[in-house]
Amino acid sequence: MYLLVAFECTIYREMAQLGRALGLGPRGCRFKSCFPDHLVYKPLKRVFIFEKYIKLVINLKGDYMIERLQNIENRYNELNNLLMDQSVISDIKKTMELSKEQSSLSEAYEAYQEYKKILEDISSCKEMMKDAEMQEFAKEELENLTKQKEELESKIEIMLLPKDPNDGKNVIVEIRGAAGGDEGNIFAGDLYEMYRRLAEKEGWKIEIIDEEKSEAGGYTLISFMVKGENVYSKLKYESGAHRVQRVPVTETQGRVHTSTATVLVMPEAEEVDYTLDMNEVRIDITRSSGCGGQGVNTTDSAVRLTHIPTGIVVYSQTERSQIKNKEKAIKLLQTRLYDYYSNLEQEKLGAERRSKIGTGDRSEKIRTYNYPQNRVTDHRIGFTLNSLDKVMQGDIDKVIEALITEDQARKLRGE
């Protein structure tokens, strides 16, 4: 029998987190239910004693990781066979679903192949250690392999965290000028320019769906699609209220004003995600309004779609062609509805949405851009950069990386 003894102040928290990470109990469960029934604990004042548990916890965690990786490998190979099946090949929707699933597993699959090779090499080195002539070489090689193994295990640990199924998708972004009148609209334009430059740097493509320009500059509303690799995984943290502190162009006495613009980032809905029933949609064709070319403003090319069951309304007028505007409007409505029903589902789950970095609500204040101090602060994680000028030029990688890192750390802690 092995005894694992530790002080309550550390072991209770750590073991509860590990239990959740291993999937041995529901989120937020009591400590006792985090482990199998054959693990018995006895509280003795400030000390917990664990008995009748032969495997040390660290080995349990390692075995669980291998089991997860083996399951991923089995499923990856199964998907390979399914994707070569003629009945699947003839079904485009099924092929898309399976290809998407296989793509989501590929990183962990490849890491497991590398991990197995390292384990084999470690085993070979241990055999070589028995040979006196090869002992020195084997020892050095074993140290290098052990280091590689530990580094890869850390990466795999992150890979095995629950994945957001939307991470690989394109996004639709809506930016609106909010508090501050003209200055809020101008700042909405600045945010659009920041994201446009980020997209340019990342090799993403932007397509404007709708825009309502402000007379003072910027936009009262601009919605656009961003297409590229894993766009949602990087932009999903941008939803919320962005606050700017600076001296507006219209300010004559040099006083700093505070204004806001709101951002909403939605994963693009694919056909496999949400099928739009056009019988539930009212279509209105109108004349384009606002600033634009002569042809845009004098033809009935703008399209407004109303989803009758939810009352959601979308509008597209950026194209000269009514058909193209209708296509954009349908895509926007499909995405808005997918986001709407996804949020309803998340509200039912409750804890999952609260555990994320920010709720994703447009009203949540997430970031402040302070121009006099050249400072940008993300309030959700307390992260500050003193290089606002570079951030507004699209160089927001450090902010995004900090958010991703914190999100992963919270998941690893079981939060």
Keywords:
415 residues, alpha+beta, 3-stranded antiparallel sheet, flat, disordered N terminus
What does this structure look like?
The chain is of the alpha+beta class and 415 residues long. Helix 2 crosses helix 4 and helix 4 runs antiparallel to helix 5.
What letter string, H or E per element, gives the SSE order? EHEEHHHHEHEEHEEEHEEHHEEEHH
Distance between the termini: 32 Å
Report the mean per-residue pLDDT as an integer: 77
- Largest sheet composition: 8 strands, mixed
Give the overall silhouette.
flat
The total of helices stands at 12
- The neighbouring-strand order within the major sheet is 5-6-4-8-7-12-13-14
Helix/strand/pairing category: alpha+beta
Helix content range of the residues, please?
Answer: 40-55%
**Unreliable stretches:** 1-14, 20-60, 291-296, 351-356
> What is the number of E strands?
14
Radius of gyration (Å):
27 Å
Bin the strand percentage. Answer: 15-25%
Give the oligomeric state of the chains in this entry, treating copies of one chain as homo and distinct chains as hetero: single chain
